[in-house]
Prior knowledge:
- By secondary structure, this protein is of the alpha/beta class.
- The protein has two domains: about 130 residues, Aspartate Aminotransferase, domain 1 (Alpha-Beta Complex); about 240 residues, Aspartate Aminotransferase, domain 2.
- Strands 2-8-7-6-5-3-4 form a seven-stranded mixed beta sheet, sandwiched between helices. Strands 9-10-12 form a three-stranded antiparallel beta sheet. It has a two-stranded parallel sheet with strand order 1-11.
- α10 crosses α13.
- It starts with a strand and ends with a helix.
- The structure holds pyridoxal-5'-phosphate.
- Pyridoxal-5'-phosphate binds next to α3.
Amino acid sequence: MIHYLDNAATEMVLKEAKEKAIYTMEQAYGNPSSTHDAGIAAARSVDEARGKVANALGADKGEVFFTSGGTEAINTAIMGAAAKFGRKKKTIITTNVEHPATNETLKRLSHDGFKIVEVKVGKDGCVSAQDVLSKVDDDTFLLSIMMINNETGAIMPVKEIKSGLSGIASGALLHVDAVQAFLKTEEKLAKYTGADFISVSGHKIGAVKGAGALYIKKGIKIPCLISGGGQEGGMRSGTEPVPIIAAFGEACEVRMKNAEGDIKRVKELSRYIKNGMNKRFPDMIWNSSETAAPNILNFSLPRAKSEVLLNVLSERNVFVSSGSACAKGKRSEVLTKMGVAPRVIDSAIRVSLSPENTRDDADALISALFSAMKLFENGK
Ligand code: PLP
C-alpha cells in the first residue's frame, strides 16, 4: 500500500476530476471557438468550470483567467503588471522565501532595471505586515507575496498587507501566490485577502496537471503573456485544454463541498503526527512553526541525512520530500533564510497532507522513520 504524503508537490487526481475530464473528452470534444453544437458544448464546459473556480475564490467569473498552472499565472501577473505600471515606477516588493516561479520572474525584471526589494522572514518563516508596508514608497507599483510557504507552511499576513496598502497613497497593487493556500483554508481568497491578483494551481487540489488560474480584480487591465487568437478574454491565447479545465472546475467544486470536514480532518491528522513524532523522537526539531498551515509539516531528525531517510521511506512506500519538489538536491534556501543551521537543514523532511490521508499513513510514516533512524544509530 502506498502512503502518499507529498501533497504540496502535487496531489493524487480526485476520482471526480478524472471522470469529468474523460466525460468532457467524450462529450465536449469541440473547439470552444467553433459555432456548431460540438463547439458550444466545449465552450459551455469551460464556462461552467470558470464559474466553479470563481465560486471557490469568491470572485466573479469575469475575474478568472485559465492558465497552464501556478507558474504561468504568477508570470502573467508579475510581467503584466510590470509592462502596464512599470514605466514610471520601478519597485516591486516581495519576501525572501518565494517560490522560484516568483523569484526567477523578478530576477528577469531586475536585469531590465526594476528594483526588487526582498523583505526578510523571521525564525517562524513569516514576514511581518508592518515590515512589508514600511518598504512601500512612491516608486512601488507591485507587491508579490505568497500566502502559504510551500516548504514550511508559514502563513503570510497578506490580508493585513492589503488593508495596510489602502492607507498608503502609492497605489501599489498586491499579487498573492496562493498556490499552497487555495482550498486548503475555508476562506474564499479573493474576498478574504482583497488582493488585486491571485495565482492558483489545479494539481495542488486534486485536479489534472496542466490547469491553473489567475484572478484579476475587476477594473484592472494588464497585457497578456501569450498572444494569438484571443481566448481567455485575450489574456491567454491558444485553444483551451477543455477536459483539463473542466477537471479543475470539478476539483474546486468537490473541495468546496467537503471543505469543512476535510480541513478539520487534516488538522486532526497533523496533530496526530506531531504528537507521535514528539513521542518517538524526543530530540527532533520542528522547522515549521506552531502557527504554520497544518497540512505542511517540516522537521529535522538530527544525525540523519534527508536523502537517506527519503530512500528508506520510499522503499517502504512512504513518499515524502526533503523540501520543495523544485529544489532537488540543493540545500533549502527557505530554511537557510529562516536561519536554520545547515546541519539541521540537511536532515529536513517535508510531510504534506491532503484530505485523502489517514492515520494509517501517519503510522506508516512514523514507523518507517523509526526504522530509518535505527540504521543511522547502528552506523549503516
Ligand atoms: N507557488 C508555490 C507556492 C508552489 O508551491 C508552486 C508549486 O509547487 C508554484 C507556485 C508553481 O505552481 P505550478 O506547479 O502549478 O506551476
